[in-house]
Predict the 3D structure of the following.
Amino acid sequence: MNWAVADVVGIREETPTARTLMLRVPDWKGALAGQHIDIRLTAPDGYQAARSYSLSSAAGDPVVAVSVELMPDGEVSPYLVRGVSVGDQLEVIGPLGGWFVWRTEQTEPIRMIGGGSGVAPLVSILRTHIASGNTAPVKLLYSVRSPEFVYFRDELAELTEAAKAEVTLQYTRHAPQGWTGTLGRIDAARITAWAAGDAPDTSTYICGPTRFVELASDALVATGVDPMTIRTERFGGA
Amino acid sequence: MGIITPGFFGKQREADPKLPPGQYETKDFPVLSAGPTPNIHQGEWSFTITNESGEKTSWTWDEFMTLPTETVDTDIHCVTRWSKFDTTWRGVSLDTLFENVETSAGYTMAHSFGGYTTNVPLEDLLDGKAWVAFEFGGEPLDPEHGGPARLLVPHLYFWKSAKWVNGITLHDTEELGFWEVNGYHAYGDPWKEERYYYDS
């Protein structure tokens, strides 16, 4: 596998601090839901910087999507969120990663917990699951600070509306007007209540900041969930 | 060198000879783990080396603590592209642990609590190149970073430094471990950028 020159064919402002880039990658042969790509930028003097971004597009989508959250002190994300335009080219390599993935032949129920931008690979799994016609239950608990920072907001609402997936939003700072759910950081009790009644063979995918993933996975293990059925992806320091 | 990205100039302007290709420096200590962090008490920790004929050499935590330790100052490089400079560890050299192990095997598999594995050639564990570390920055090693003890093989990408390590088995032929089966390179030299299985 080599670096490929991808065309930026679409850009959506996802939140005030994040953008989704739609990329057409030459000879793209599909991905597994949950995989990532690396994006590499090259300065005029040859200096390069590369970072990994989870795909949010469904496994079979011919155009791949990554959502990039602006890291204020970042090196690559400011360029991708503020500098890139449709028609630009970016070097990418992938798809990458063979563990934090969901395969269409999996038949067990799926439970996913996402924190902030960590929802991206989970949305890929959700989209792939629905596109595959898989009838096993799939649910997503998505922790986000306030309504304007919800990734894929309309799509997630539509999926819930159409009863294709159970999507539960957990607002940590501000909830929308008329919100009847809980407000505040996710804690063990919240996760335990949300997961109560799930089938024992449910597979779990958790992605988010390190502390968030630690808390969510510990809470599930404490309720008796087999650690080997929990796949995690963490970002940020600890 | 790839295509020039118009308008991109980067931050890390000085080429740092300590930084392997494709890496960036971080001051954080990110966490790469496949699943939940296991909570292993020292009392239930033990470490076992099993040679190719099945002979075992084991240490309990208390026995392990009587072994000579070394302080290791090193840079570490994660396959997910971050590098962290000047980290300080304390642990027991694998040379010490292998002192009385009879083997003519060339390959090892490190095993961890929770069932994770990673494969490392034996020569990469010996001659002052690897430790079982139980302190980081002068403090007991945090569980999310592999505590109570992890393998430390800093000249390879850091997934080879198996967290929650509880043993090493010796093998005549190379087998692939957990991360290697799941897409990472069999050897993982950061200076050759051996990240993924197809980076031959």
Notes: Chain B touches chain A through 42 residues (CB under 8 Å). The domain at 42-192 of chain B is CATH 3.90.420.10 (Sulfite Oxidase; Chain A, domain 2).
